[in-house]
Design brief:
The complex is a heterodimer of chains A (about 450) and B (about 110).
Chain A: E1 3-8, H1 20-26, E2 31-34, H2 41-51, H3 61-75, E3 78-81, H4 88-102, E4 106-112, H5 120-125, E5 146-151, H6 156-163, E6 168-171, H7 178-188, H8 195-208, E7 238-242, E8 247-250, H9 261-268, E9 278-279, E10 284-286, E11 291-296, E12 299-303, E13 306-308, E14 313-333, H10 337-355, E15 361-367, E16 387-396, H11 399-405, H12 412-415, E17 420-421, E18 430-441, E19 450-456
Parallel strand pairs in A: 1-2, 2-3, 3-6, 4-6
Antiparallel strand pairs in A: 1-7, 4-19, 5-14, 7-8, 8-12, 9-10, 10-13, 11-12, 14-16, 14-17, 14-18, 15-16
Helix pairs in contact in A: 1-3, 3-4, 6-7, 7-8
Chain B: E1 2-4, E2 9-16, E3 19-26, H1 29-38, H2 41-47, E4 56-61, E5 66-72, H3 92-97, E6 100-102
Chain lengths: ~450, ~110
């Protein structure tokens, strides 16, 4: 039966591509699907672009392809990446320049049309409310603070770019799983209304989109995580997808980590809301019918997912400016480490009050005690900790207050409670962004999708 | 007997906007039946009362011996505006594993 093998690339902007090498060398993959965009990565890219108009794409794509392309070209491997971010053309320009410098040839496609910020008024004019998907709030409350707004496009433009001969497809925002579903549909010739097969393809894409999280990385457990072998040499997941929609998830021979029923089901349900109606631009997936058959030796067969007709709307996620965060950190050793952190927080609050610095919100956490588990921290040893760090954060609309906040802390070293140590410098103010998910009629977005293929030589 | 979930299940959490989500997985079928009975939306909501504005949703996946738990309004409005150290809610699954449920002493993972 006809099949295609896809390997996972990055799982986020800044992830390592070192394990991708094994998938290309020994994993038999034809495609690498690389996800560079988490929900709010576009906010980071927007800041880059404000500083420099030619920026706004994920900067790791060029060094990654410079490192992997000679190997990939030798093995006939193509890449699909959403590293275009807010500027897919800019990403191609940078990549084409780097390839020309090396004397390499490649057909590089860009998919655009996901960015809808400039079209918001036009969309409103055509009857789209753009209300917050979860709260129903009116877009007017954040309209003048929006910094980006991008629709999640589906797999179809990726498949079309491949059909036009692309070796590398650079997109902006697409559904993460579409990075795999695009090459799957292109290779296996599925119909775009074959909902059950598309559902299987979506499962595969979802399993691959977070790199090592499917092969034993971040295996959330007590004790079991330590039995995952050789995380140092973890193999990213590889899917062999068959024409009938079934798939085998595996990894390159000789790599670390693990592909099993347990590691795959952790990834399958990751960042899913209703697992019986997992909505993507291409199909609505029911995970309640599928089977994960663990065949041993890092091979798991996936079958039986069912799909329903794709929605008439596309999800758009916008980000809006939502104030500034100031951060201060100071650490204390035993004795009374926690109590000294508490006292320091009181002093800082007093300084804020004396200066008349308003903060809409403040958060006090104790690193080494409760900064990760919060209310679920076990208080048993709170008063006898070896050491404890105070981390204090404030949210304010005034950037100067956020900048000044961190500067309140060093003074405590000589004039506060004793045995302070581990000072790591003053933290700068950080811009905070609210997130605005909304739905827009597909028919108002898809006509603006453009696919452009360019031969670089 | 009272059993901490960490002894009989594994879990991973993630974020979408202001929503934290947790996959909770039984290591075996007898344990899954106990989880499906004991880990209710009400109990999870009580466990996360300090951070979750609610509501809490729990979905069953008998085929995966898993529960999907969704905590609405649990991330201070979302990762990029949260003041928390764990703004992405990655450790919320660990907090869930600290929850205790009533379970029979003869579950496979509790064997002597």
């Amino acid at each position: 039966m006809k099949s295609v093998r896809i390997g996972a690339g990055l799982g986020f902007y800044g992830d390592s591509w070192r394990p991708v090498r094994a998938s290309i060398e020994r994993g038999g993959v034809r495609y690498i699907a690389s996800d560079h965009l988490a929900e709010l990565t576009l906010a980071i890219l927007q800041k880059d672009r404000q500083k420099e108009q030619s920026a706004g794409f994920a900067r790791d794509a060029v060094p990654m392809l410079l490192d992997l392309w000679p190997l990939a070209a030798r093995h006939g491997v193509k890449f699909v990446l959403n590293a275009g971010g807010l500027n897919p053309e800019g990403a191609r320009e940078a990549l084409a320049r780097a390839f020309r410098d090396q004397g390499w040839r490649a057909c590089i496609a860009v998919v655009t049309g996901d960015s809808v910020l400039q079209r918001f008024e036009a969309l409103r004019g055509r009857g789209e409310a753009l209300a917050h998907m979860d709260t129903g709030a009116d877009i007017a409350t954040v309209r003048d603070r929006l910094v980006f707004a991008n629709a999640y496009l589906g797999a179809r433009p990726i498949a079309e770019a491949l059909a036009q001969g692309a070796d590398i497809v650079l997109t902006g925002r697409v559904a993460d799983a579409a990075l795999s579903l695009g090459p799957i549909v292109h290779e296996l010739g599925w119909r775009w209304d074959d909902w059950d097969r598309l559902a299987q393809g979506l499962v595969v894409g979802h399993l691959l989109e977070c790199s090592g999280q499917a092969s034993g990385g971040n295996f959330g457990s007590a004790g079991e995580w330590a039995r995952i072998p050789d995380l140092l040499h973890i193999g990213y997941p590889i899917a062999e997808v068959f024409e009938d929609g079934t798939a085998v998830i595996t990894k390159a021979p000789g790599t670390g980590g693990r592909i099993s029923f347990d590691t795959l089901r952790q990834q399958l349900l990751y960042e899913v809301h209703d697992p019986h109606a997992y909505v993507s631009p291409d199909v609505v997936l029911d995970m309640g019918t599928l089977r994960l058959d663990d065949e041993g030796d890092d091979r798991v067969r996936v079958a039986g997912a069912t799909g329903a007709r794709r929605p008439d709307t596309l999800k758009v996620v916008a980000g809006y400016h939502d104030g500034w965060m100031g951060t201060g950190v100071i650490g204390f050793s035993w004795p009374d480490a926690h109590a000294k952190c508490v006292r320091s927080a009181e002093i800082i609050k007093g300084l804020m009050a004396e200066r008349g610095w308003p903060a809409e919100d403040a958060n006090i956490e104790f690193i080494g005690y409760d900064s990760l588990l919060g209310a679920h921290a076990d208080p048993a040893h709170r008063d006898d900790l070896n050491e404890c760090f105070l981390r204090m954060t404030v949210r304010t609309s005034d950037r100067r207050i956020a900048e000044g906040f961190g500067r309140l802390f060093p003074w405590l070293g000589l004039s506060g409670p004793p045995y302070a140590g581990g000072f790591h410098g003053i933290e700068r103010a950080k811009e905070l962004l609210g997130i605005w998910p909304t739905l827009v009629e597909r028919a108002l977005i898809e006509p603006d999708i453009e696919i452009d293929v360019e031969a670089v030589a | 007997m009272k059993v901490g979930l960490w002894r009989i299940a594994h879990a991973r959490s993630g974020d979408k906007a202001d929503r934290a989500d947790i996959g909770l997985f039984a290591y075996d079928a007898p344990t899954y039946r106990v989880l499906a009975r004991e880990v209710t939306a009400e109990r999870v909501a009580a466990h996360f009362a300090a951070i979750c504005a609610g509501p809490v949703e729990v979905y069953r996946l008998d085929n995966l011996l898993a529960l999907k738990i969704v905590l609405n309004g649990a991330l201070e409005g979302g990762a990029a505006r949260s003041l928390r150290m764990d703004n992405l809610g990655k450790t919320i699954a660990a907090a869930l594993l600290r929850m205790e449920i009533e379970a029979p002493a003869d579950l496979p993972r509790l064997g002597a």
